[in-house]
Amino acid sequence: GENVEQHPSTLSVQEGDSAVIKCTYSDSASNYFPWYKQELGKGPQLIIDIRSNVGEKKDQRIAVTLNKTAKHFSLHITETQPEDSAVYFCALNEGGGNKLTFGTGTQLKVEL
Amino acid sequence: ETGVTQTPRHLVMGMTNKKSLKCEQHLGHNAMYWYKQSAKKPLELMFVYSLEERVENNSVPSRFSPECPNSSHLFLHLHTLQPEDSALYLCASSQGAGGPYEQYFGPGTRLTVT
């Protein structure tokens, strides 16, 4: 199956700084790339997604960029706040279908 | 809240027990999923149901038995589990299974097998 590499595995930033998480993949048929945030004791929450017909999408402090040629996509969080502390997962759809393959997660800690 | 609920939230069972996990979605979706989340590993897709028909079985051992009586409810029946089956079991739903559609997750059931 598809392999998604996610980096870094842990990320610590100061409040107000930006955070960037990157995922790389190999399946050129993938055309849907969601990002999930998982807080302690909760299920993953979809925070933003991008489809292959666009290169960037923004929603307030969160943005996702996609480079289909290089096969990588990134999550950008600006002006980080303590409530952004969580585990973030990237995912993509294998073979362009509905089956999602997930990265291994990034533990983001926003320090005061 | 995502509109997907799961019960129980925590479950401890012995290896000879039989138990069931329940999932309900209030989003009017037609597809439902079971995932397994273990520490230090990516989420693993277990089963996919579309309009109550199983469309994916991701090489899951037969000690896990899913059931989807209607498009709003999904069960995972467990029997003779192993300690390595201890994990967070997540249910998700989406508009359909043809995709790609956004998948919305429930809070999960934390399962411990003793």
User: What are the segments of chain A in which pLDDT stays under 50 over at least 5 consecutive residues?
Assistant: none
Greatest chain-chain contact? A-B, 26 and 27 residues
Decide which structural class fits the backbone of chain A.
Answer: mainly beta
Share of β-strand residues of chain A: over 45%
Reading the helices and strands of chain A in chain order gives EEEEEEEEEEE
Compute the number of strand runs of chain B.
Answer: 11
> What would you call the quaternary organization?
heterodimer
Bin the strand percentage of chain B. Answer: over 45%
What is the CA-CA span between the terminal residues of chain A? Answer: 40 Å
As residue ranges, the low-confidence spans of chain B are: none
Evaluate the radius of gyration of chain A: 13 Å
Gross morphology of chain A: globular
Order of helices and strands of chain B: EEEEEEEEEEE
Radius of gyration of chain B: 13 Å
Distance between the termini of chain B: 31 Å
